[in-house]
Amino acid sequence: MFGKDFMDELLKPQQLYSHRTMKTVLTRLAHASIMRLNPASMDRLYELMVMAFKYQVLLCPRPKDLLLITYNHIDTIREFVKDTPVVGNKVDETHRKIIETYSSLPEGEFQLLRQTLLIFFQDMHIRVSLFLKNQLQNPNGRFALSTSGPVPYGMDVPGLIRTFDRKGREVRRSEFPTGGSYTSPIRKGCFELHGDRVIRLGMNMYTVNHPEETHTSKAHSVKTDDTPNLLAKEELNLLARLMGSMKAEDMPKTQTGFQINLFPTDQEEGEEAETSSGAEEPLFGVINIQAMQDEQAATQLAQIVGQFAEGEEQPENLSSSKGDDLLAMMDDL
Amino acid sequence: MTSYVEVVALSLWLQTTRRLTPDHLLPFQQTALPREDSSMYHKEKSIQVKNSASALYNNLGVLRIAPRHLTYFTVVHANVVNMVSASWDGLNYSHRQLQSKEPNVATSTSLIMQAAFCPLPSRDLLVVTSQKGIQMYESDGSIMVYWHALDTPETPTAQAVFARGISAVRDSYICVGVSSGAILVFDVPSKGSNITLSEALKEHKESITDMAPECSGSQECIADLVSADDGGNLCVWKSGEDFQLLNSIPGFDMSCPSVKLWKGTVVAGYGTGQIRLYEAVTGILHAEINAHARWIYSLDIAPFSGLLLSAAEDSLVRVWHLTMTPETNSVEVIHLHNECVTDTQICGAKFCDGDGYAFAVTGYDLSEIIRYTQS
């Protein structure tokens, strides 16, 4: 996924993908490991990913902050793969490429990019329980837009009218009621390889949850029921483990340090993931999964995964063949 | 009669904001102070549209057809223009959709950047700009009278190619901006489809965002057209067989998505949420308003009353009043009214008449045109 060819292909100027194409790409990515999702689960996963992505793009404070959101994602990925330097290097390389491609883009062009992405998301109002619970989304599926809080970096707090004379001296100052309660911007986010991004969009949505939520999910994740819901959760756990150690040589017994957090409350929710993927900009189809696992499940799954490990191809071959598929498919458009 | 009532209304609202009362405006004193200015306009029944509005600058076109008691509205959705013809009595609505395609090419559609009415003395045209080219229709959208193809490269380039920024100018010109920064000037005959490309003005270095004609109706104004680009740069033009650049007002590296020209004053809205008022010909800054907390997407002026409408991604539409004092060559801005369209990033806002008695609003992902009328 972070292979050079794939990234180069993603970074080529191109038109916006259709939903069909995007779904195909993401389905391939989701199945790039041994994980298998039935069509209904994949549909649901796709919807959740798109809604999370829509949320991030819509609420992005300034168009250029799309980069900061991307960098939040990359930072998290970097954390996931920190025990695998080879992959870590690829992530860094991708990050550098993004910086190189997009850093000098003016704000107006970022806004055009954002407007084009918003066309992709148009008319999608699928309700996501996490968003509903945190009141980020209304029951009608539309996202809540606040009229209070800090203004984006580089903007002034509304409310002031200044009048000047012909020599440029300010002659009058007056205020008007804004209908909101705005405050000064917080500090600027860092656009470099490493640094404080400041904005929270693009960060793991699940880390801000209450511990009770994760405890409920823990109880469910161990069961090997054959209800599709729970099986899919196990598969995701597996994927998480595998993603934590990309090379086949590394036995996936190494502590990956990340967790899967699943909400079993809604039958229709199934797995939940937060990801971002893009067409015109290289937000990859990465499933950003973070969850808590208990030790028993970890050992159990590690054993299961150990059985599969010998049968796996080299990850480079795997990713390049998948990449070729995707490239071929993309070329066909 | 109308203007007297307006003066009364305005004087009432002047008292509600915390600033000095312009002496030259009030012929009498007010004692009662209304607390809120929230009742200047009230919401009317919305007009339903076939598709939701896309997030594009200035995404609402309005044309008032007085003899037929109709108003036309246009809202862009991806590669389609939704047109609604609404009768003034509110009883009849008819819908039409226009696609952005080259004539005689069945499959090609491209994303539309803008649709706007161009009222000329002899005829009204509807201009639609897209990634492929420029289409001009009769104002009811019934017939396409002209197609101009842009030079689109074979494979997509990093710099997008599109047309954006539409303005009728004086008696017979329609100007359209291009992503390269060029402005195409079309000569429009009083009828028929013999529209010709007269010249290409190459002054802007960045993509054109919006353009506007002098809308006061006064023949005394020297400047006929203002154009704005993605860098916030403004150019002021005089029309003619050869358009003449009168002035260039530099931006500050921030896009100017919407611009208006009224009585020789440029009113520009920026991605910083600021509105700035400049004297067009000299570039002198009259006023600066920290108006919105997000990108401004649309400005409009009601030429008979001097009302200004601003709308932004922050969900707010604001109504202001502009006063020109020719003796001192100064411009005064006061704030009159706010409307919050909850949970909506507004992408189009326009007055429905020259007095500003009513205005209409569109928002991203909304399938309706919201209307407000003065109370």
Automatic annotation (TrEMBL), chain A:
Organism's domain of life? Eukaryota
Quote the cellular component terms of the Gene Ontology held in the record: cytoplasm; plasma membrane
- Which InterPro entries does this entry report, sorted A to Z? OSCP1 (IPR019332)
Which PANTHER family does the entry link to? OXIDORED-NITRO DOMAIN-CONTAINING PROTEIN, PROTEIN OSCP1
Name by which UniProt lists this protein: Protein OSCP1
From TrEMBL, chain B:
Organism in which the protein naturally occurs: Perca flavescens (American yellow perch)
* Gene Ontology terms describing biological process: cilium assembly
* Highest taxon in the source lineage: Eukaryota
One GO cellular component term: centriole
Q: Where is the WD repeat-containing protein 54 beta-propeller domain?
A: 40-373
Annotated SMART domains = WD40
Q: Tell me which UniProt keywords the record has, alphabetically.
A: Repeat, WD repeat
**Keyword Repeat applies:** yes
Q: What name does UniProt use for this protein?
A: WD repeat-containing protein 54 beta-propeller domain-containing protein
Q: Where are the WD repeats?
A: 289-330
